[in-house]
Amino acid sequence: MTLTLYDYVLSGSAYKARLMMAILGVPYEAIPVDFYPGNEHRQPDFLDLNPSGTLPVLVDGDLVLTDSAAILAYIAQNHDPSGKWMPVGDAAQLAQVIQWLAFSQRLTATAGAARLHDMINRPLDVEAARKGAHAAFRELERHLTDREFYGATFLVGDCPTIADIACFPYVALSPDGGIAHDDYPAIRRWLYAVRALPGFLEMPGIHALHDLRDDRPGTVTHAAE
Amino acid sequence: MSETTTGGDAARDEWYAVAIAAQLRPGEASETVLLDEPVRVARSADGTLAVTKADGTACPAFERYGHVWTSVGAPDHEIFDIPEATQEGRTLVDCGAVRVRCSPLRAVENFLDIAHFPYVHTDILGAEPKTEVEPYKVHIEEKTDEIWATKVKFFQPQAAKSAEGGIVTDYMYRVPAPMTAILYKTCPPQPGEWDIITIFVQPLAEDLCDVWPWMALFDDGNSLAELIHFQQMIFLQDRSILENQMPRLLPLDPKMEIPTRADMTSVAYRRWLKKRGMTYGALTQAA
């Protein structure tokens, strides 16, 4: 059964799903939704599929998933034989992953909202959103700094998890919304580490690591879609 | 160093897109800004368009090329003609506005540049190591005073949504107004015709603009959403670069930046702006 992703190219949340599937080499069919300027996600056809009118949506047979964290969990659980991306065997790690999935919603609501305001003029109290984003970034910075003291790179455990994928996009894209990374050195190193993952996929506003192109160990080359 | 400008009156007497026509339904209005002036764009119940300044002054308003156009000055010329807009068989695509914190002139200049394709639109509009810009021609069309760059060729891995595999793409660029640029490119499904992609830049302030991409394509088999996504992907890759260009305003003094041969269109554009007194969004002298 082919997975179907209802997608918007500029959506950081849809990018979480694209990135996870790229890293795990999961084939899927993308259906572009005209989020902007067409507002297609608020039209009856789309609302029939997802009454909350949000993107992305992942469809697998009869299963319809409309939350990006749920989508990440589903993809990892089904397509990661190593079991590392979604550490269900370790209660403490799994709980921490879920905690960061919840944290990622704050990033969407602050840094993500500021980006939509600055980029496509969505109405918003942008100063409040940026303030909220900086508060979240400071928490993330402190956590990642702590992690570095223990020799760890990613948010939970010894390797990247869906928590990293969930938090990565709206942090990486925050300069689009007037939130610079200058004050967050640990965050910058973490962003770099995520971008260096084999199978990494870019999106507008998030560039691949140029000098690592093609010759880095473990690079998976996917056939053109 | 101080950034010096000398007014911007020439910019006032031009036409600007300020809304997507189809999205402004009867009885609706939107608030926006044009050249630092707040304006209200409205469509009455009977469909008539009205653009008004904050003090109630009426500005001209009409629909063309999918957008609502207006001016806060007094243009002595009609809006430029895009003959392809009415050519049969083309899909007309409204892409919405993307807001960019940069000079409106820099948005146009970036659009005219080919050399950045392999670096900014990697594996889509260009790819390393094929980064060389071959010689091309630039001239000013005397009758219309428009800039044209012709005989532009560039290798592109995926030049358009309808292109499969890499091709050498032919281009032409046309600048019919200071804040409008039109790109003509090889049209894979319809050899002998050109796809056109335009940007209508709405100057909000000297360092802030809304860019309205608009396309008239011969395309087979792609949904409107796919075409819009492709264009938005390309433009958003440019956005982060544009927002980091320094100085923010476009330097018109030839001593300030050193162009290469690939920048011929940019050189012509800057000279042409200077000649027309288009200083809004420009740096006219190094202090």
Task: Describe this protein's structure.
- The complex is a heterodimer of chains A (225) and B (287).
- Chain A has 225 residues and is an alpha+beta fold.
- Chain A has a domain at 91-197: Glutathione S-transferase Yfyf (Class Pi), Chain A, domain 2 (Up-down Bundle), CATH 1.20.1050.
- Helices cover 48% and strands 8% of the residues of chain A.
- Chain A has seven helices and four strands; from the N terminus they run βαβαββααααα.
- Chain A has helices spanning 12-24, 44-49, 68-79, 91-120, 126-149, 162-172, 185-195, and strands at 3-7, 28-32, 57-60, 63-65.
- A four-stranded mixed beta sheet of chain A has the order 2-1-3-4.
- In chain A, strand 1 (3-7), helix 1 (12-24) and strand 2 (28-32) form a beta-alpha-beta unit.
- Chain A is globular.
- The two termini of chain A are 17 Å apart.
- Mean pLDDT of chain A is 93; it is low at 221-225.
- In chain B, 17% of the residues lie in helices and 35% in strands.
- Chain B has two domains: 13-79, Single Sheet (N-terminal domain of TfIIb), CATH 2.20.25; 86-283, Naphthalene 1,2-dioxygenase Alpha Subunit, Chain A, domain 1, CATH 3.90.380.10.
- Chain B has five helices and 17 strands.
- Chain B has helices at residues 9-12, 104-112, 117-120, 224-242, 264-275, and strands at residues 16-20, 29-34, 37-43, 49-53, 58-59, 61-64, 67-70, 91-94, 98-100, 137-141, 146-156, 167-177, 180-186, 194-205, 208-217, 250-251, 282-283.
- In chain B, the strands form four sheets. In chain B, strands 8, 9, 10, 11, 12, 13, 14 and 15 form an eight-stranded antiparallel beta sheet that branches. A four-stranded antiparallel beta sheet of chain B has the order 2-3-4-5, with no helix packed on it.
- With 287 residues, chain B is α+β, with helices and mostly antiparallel strands.
- At the A-B interface, helix 4 of A face helix 4 of B.
